[in-house]
Specification:
By secondary structure, the protein is α+β, with helices and mostly antiparallel strands.
């Protein structure tokens, strides 16, 4: 009888160990799943915090438009709020003093709305586009000097090919494109560009 019990124990013991291992594996998998779920929840919460609700985006866009439109020609577009600096506002590759002050006010609006970024686009019909890049860089430098974080602003020059995109080409102009989650991608004018012209 003792031999039968011993033999039965020998047969049952490996199955018990195997079952415990399976349970342990299941617990580890469940624990891993819980960690992944937690990471996913944190990521969603973080994204939700960085992307304001549509109503807040519209309000921020409206504030920027209303503040900048008396200074320079400002357009509300799906790609962002576009502020145009005409070529007459530059002297020897530098911003005129009064225009420099206006760019400083653009910087103030950017700083006041965390989550926006700026692309400064210079346009030119010259062969190498050096003036387009230098004008864009001058505007970017002023934005950064007035408080805009360098990592949120970049300057780029465009020549000829990009000029044809506008019906009213203004060679030598610089456009400050303000965009990002803080103001969304929907223009207030619901699909049509809204142009607000400076009073000067």
């Amino acid at each position: 009888m003792g031999r039968i019990l011993a033999f039965g124990t020998i047969l049952i013991l490996p199955f018990t160990v195997w079952a415990q291992a399976l349970d342990s594996g299941t617990e580890e998998e469940a624990s891993s799943d819980r960690v992944l779920d937690y990471i996913s929840q944190v990521r969603h919460q973080r994204e939700a915090k960085t992307i304001p609700p549509p109503a807040v985006q519209r309000q921020s866009r409206k504030e920027i438009l209303e503040a900048l439109s008396p200074l320079l020609t400002t357009r509300d577009t799906p790609r962002g709020v576009v502020v145009t600096i005409p070529p007459t506002e530059f002297e020897a590759g530098k911003l005129r003093p009064d225009t420099s002050e206006k760019v400083a006010q653009v910087a103030a609006m950017v700083v006041a709305h965390p989550g926006v970024k700026v692309v400064v686009e210079g346009y030119s019909d010259s062969g190498n586009g050096e003036d387009a890049q230098s004008h864009a860089q001058a505007v970017r430098d002023k934005l950064i000097d007035t408080g805009v974080a360098p990592e949120t602003a970049r300057a780029v020059g465009y020549v000829k090919a990009r000029l044809a995109a506008s019906a009213r080409v203004d060679n030598g102009r610089v456009e400050i494109v303000i965009s990002g989650p803080a103001i969304g991608t929907v223009a207030l004018s619901a699909g049509r560009n809204e142009t607000l012209t400076s009073a000067r």
